[in-house]
Write a structure and sequence with these properties.
The chain is α/β, with parallel strands linked by helices. About 40% of the residues lie in helices and about 20% in strands. Helix 7 links the parallel strand 6 and strand 7. The protein is flat, with a radius of gyration of 23 Å.
């Protein structure tokens, strides 16, 4: 089950540097000029979760397989991207394919790195990008509405539903608000997602600060945090340069470096966790002597659908799920101990999987 987060921002805000560190590669060329990223770069990263290693140690698992998130480094947008300025249209299409947006904002001063707008103002930068995405959405909505008219006259119910949702989005966009501010009924959520509106996607603001501010942020990142809070969005503080250095160290060296910098964990770990939370995701585990593995599911997923993430046949032939909560598994030092303590449960098709559940699925083949 793939979850994609697009990394967007104006040119020269540190996007590609961050992506390089994030994926531990130099696949994205970091350079001091606009549009150095011509094609979107895609990288998969493990979602950090200390619970997985603990479970593996208890079960004596030979292999540890973490769950993963996909990050897409999308070339720098500029003012006018919605009208095709720069390489706008191509990049907007790349964003459309992502589940959420990590919006990198420059929160540092550096005379050697040109700012495309000629000043450092992360809140204004955020507004520039948001405006371009809203304009692109508005154009898309208007085109789609025009195309639906004939179908609606013919009594097409799906077309009528699409029309209703598109008009709700249009009203918000014309009022200068992103599509994610529209209140969507539970029954409409799937159809709403299929509209693939850029501004309907959840946003995580990533404040790229200078090295000295990596632990506590600075006045610019504080402004972004206030903006995010007002929007109901999330924000994280990261120094892309520090993350780039960490990415070149082994685990012990990285831990020592973080301690010296006064940081409890790498900013990238915070970014990945924040992205995971932003998308409303959670983790369940399968554990055995062969492997301990983490699986990503949306919160609220029922047991058969959770089983389907492993294999479609598991969902089709689902019988029951043998379930142990993570804390109970650890307290019992494994499955046998959890059973003895009465913490082993058998759950059926209506069970809503909880974060950290250790599961074993039984199915008919």
């Amino acid at each position: 089950m793939g979850f994609k987060m697009g990394i967007v921002g104006l040119p020269n805000v540190g996007k590609s540097t961050l992506f390089n560190a994030l994926t531990r590669t130099a696949a994205a060329q970091a350079a001091n000029f606009p549009f150095c990223t011509i094609e979107p770069n895609v990288g998969e990263v493990a979602v950090p979760d200390a619970r997985l290693e603990r479970l593996a140690a208890i079960a004596g698992s030979k292999q540890i397989i973490p769950t993963r998130m996909t990050f897409v480094d999308i070339a720098g947008l500029v003012r006018g991207a919605s009208r095709g300025e720069g390489l706008g249209n191509q990049f907007l299409a790349n964003i459309r394919e992502c589940d959420a947006i990590a919006h990198v904002l420059r929160c540092f001063e550096d005379g050697d790195i040109t700012h495309v707008e000629g000043r450092v103002d992360p809140v204004a930068d955020a507004e520039t990008i948001e405006t371009e995405l809203m304009l692109a959405d508005l154009e898309s909505v208007e085109k789609r509405l025009a195309g639906l008219a004939r179908k609606i006259k013919g009594g097409d119910k799906d077309a009528a539903d699409q029309d209703r949702l598109l008009r709700a989005a249009q009203a918000a966009l014309e009022a200068g608000k992103p599509a994610r501010t529209v209140k969507v009924a539970e029954d409409d959520r799937r159809a709403w997602r299929l509209l693939q509106l850029l501004t309907a996607k959840p946003v995580l603001y990533v404040c790229n600060v200078e090295e000295a501010s990596a632990a506590s942020g600075n006045s610019q990142s504080a402004r972004v945090a206030a903006m995010a809070a007002a929007e109901g969005a999330a924000s994280v503080v990261i120094s892309a340069r520090i993350e780039e250095e960490i990415s070149q160290l082994d685990a012990d060296e990285a831990a020592m470096f973080l301690t010296e910098m006064g940081l409890e964990e790498a900013g990238l770990d915070r970014l990945i966790k924040a992205g995971y939370a932003l998308l409303g995701l959670q983790t369940y585990f399968t554990v055995g002597p062969k492997e301990a593995r983490a699986w990503t599911i949306p919160k609220g997923t029922l047991a058969p659908q959770a089983a389907g993430v492993i294999h479609g046949d598991f969902e089709k032939g689902f019988i029951r799920s043998e379930t142990i909560a993570y804390d109970d598994y650890v307290a019992g030092n494994g499955e046998a101990g959890a059973k003895e303590a009465g913490r082993f449960r058998v759950e059926g098709k209506t069970y809503e999987v909880q974060d950290g559940d250790v599961l074993h699925f039984l199915f008919s083949g």
